[in-house]
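[retry 2/3] HTH-type transcriptional regulator DegA: previous attempt timed out, resubmitting with same input.
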Amino acid sequence: MTADGAVGSGRHDQPVTLKDVARAAGVHISTVSRVLRQQEPVHGWTDTALRVREVAARLGYRPNSLASGLRTNRSHSIGLLMPRLTDTVIATICESIEDAARYAGYQTLLTAPPDTMNSQMESLDFLLSRQVEGVIATSLHRDDSLFLDRLSRLPIPFITANRHIDPCIPAVVSDDFDGGRKATEYLISLGHTRIGIVAGPRHASTGYDRLQGYRQALESAGIPADESLVIHSEWEVQGGVLGAHALLSLADPPTAIFAVNDTAAIGVMGAAHQRGLSIPRDLSLIGYNDIPIVAQLPIPLTTVRSDLTLMGSTAVHELISAIEGGQLHSVTLPVSLIVRSSTAERH
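[retry 2/3] HTH-type transcriptional regulator DegA: success.
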């Protein structure tokens, strides 16, 4: 460890220091320190800042966050509370958060507890014990009063991504109400009036909001609500399989199904195949999120695209802004319908 907190280098004899970068870039050491610690300004880097960053990368300079923390009494770390990390959606958000945090000079400390609020509370306590400066959570349960009370008393900034828990807790989410409405309106435009929905677990705001958008689209089209067409399920493939079988076993089964996530939609495809149904000839199907695999399926999936990478990076930007003294803001990101081969006009 050096006096200015650098570790590692492109040289084999000693670490590259801030002084080395300043000397090679022809600027003062304070300029190097400032440029390498700040996020990219709204109007982009100046020529001097670009030169400093290029020189630092070429020399292999790496800041030592431990040394910096000892000097400033700061950890420069962000805690991540992310159950269901094997889910492609959560993994994509996590990767984006990690990239954005590293770019801003922060380290991440990841916890991946079971998707229960007791487990998440324990993980939150662990993150606080490690002196993280802020926390991002992705899988909170809506209307959980005990956890909400705990969040209201946190000593550090906290923001959610993917799901929201309460209007008083800042969140970066997709416009899931609009996404549910878009999916359902498209199926209605194809002539479908018996539209089932595999709606996800009741505790998830993502599924809830998409379900409300589905209901709004039906109401606007004058189609009576039929609660037998609403099946709550888990997010995984098996949840889609079970949900589809429940819907397709009805005396008057749906001619179209909206699954509120792509993984469950894949399960719906499997259930339809087991019943000898052809997608989209016998059953139209829409998913949600546009995870990479669904465009490559034998029947490419029509789905609602949410920008998960932007969601993660926006959450980091908001959290670091609050850590540095700014205000946390909620952000709702737009979604778009991606039409592929799993939907067709009703015959």
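[retry 2/3] HTH-type transcriptional regulator DegA: The radius of gyration is 24 Å.
[retry 2/3] clearing retry counter.
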